[in-house]
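Reading a protein record of the kind used here takes only a little practice. The integers have meaning only within a learned vocabulary of local backbone shapes. With that in mind, consider the following protein and its fold in token form:
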Amino acid sequence: MFSFRSTLSTRFILAAACLGMAVAPGVGHAVGDPAAKSDGDKVLRICASTQNAPFSRSDASGFEDKIMTVVADAMGLKPVFVWSNRPQIYAVQEQLDKNQCDVVMGVDSGDTRVLTTVPVYRAGYVFITRADHDAITGFDDPKLKTAGHIAMSLHSPAQPVMVKEKIYYNNVPYLYSLIGFHSPRNQYADVSPDKIVSEVASGNAGVGIAFEPEVARYVHESNVKLRVTPIEDNQTGSDGRAIPQRFDEAMGVRKDDAPLRDALNKAIDASRSKIDAILHEEGFVSYPLNS
């Protein structure tokens, strides 16, 4: 299964276009450098995007970069970040499948495009409000219907629930104003996590809805005190089908690379305490795995 983070909110609309590559100083090798995977090198080539903050940053300071570094260390390998200037949505097709790197972080457990590892962490979607405003307790909370603009990504698991509650379509013009009315039909376009937070902090939006790992850093850095309220994982759409709001995030490797998947599993399990410390530092709720 793909997550709303991996496919819909980031819309895996995959295009066969050339990648722009960049390498963070001192972190690893550029794509195409034979030294990046020579027989004598003990390296873990990690697919990464410079356009994926706060998960990944070009200086490898993203919290998932830190997790990958810890796991590589546990495997006795040097982490080599293979950077793309393209959004992370293209990582599997344009990097991993083309053998430019060997593992990608941040896919759903069970993502059918890849072999996935054991879950690394579990996180969910949240409501974001100003602390001086009332909290939103759920999609059926009457305050949500009178909150004004709702800042969120264009394709979030909130969308079908909001459609059911008849509060989505009136919000669409506002959402498209946040991306300059660019159409996502032929290009990647979405509302950035920091934009969601700043819209709520400024009062332009009464509520924000986001995957908590995407926004936790910006919530903590906000000059305006904000409140984060977890969305319960019992939502349904208009047809009664369950709409998950929490997801197990894993690593993915090529389907023919079971040995690497198995080695990553052992390293992840051996690194749990260090991974938990990284998640705690990032400041979002990490739910029990497979819950």
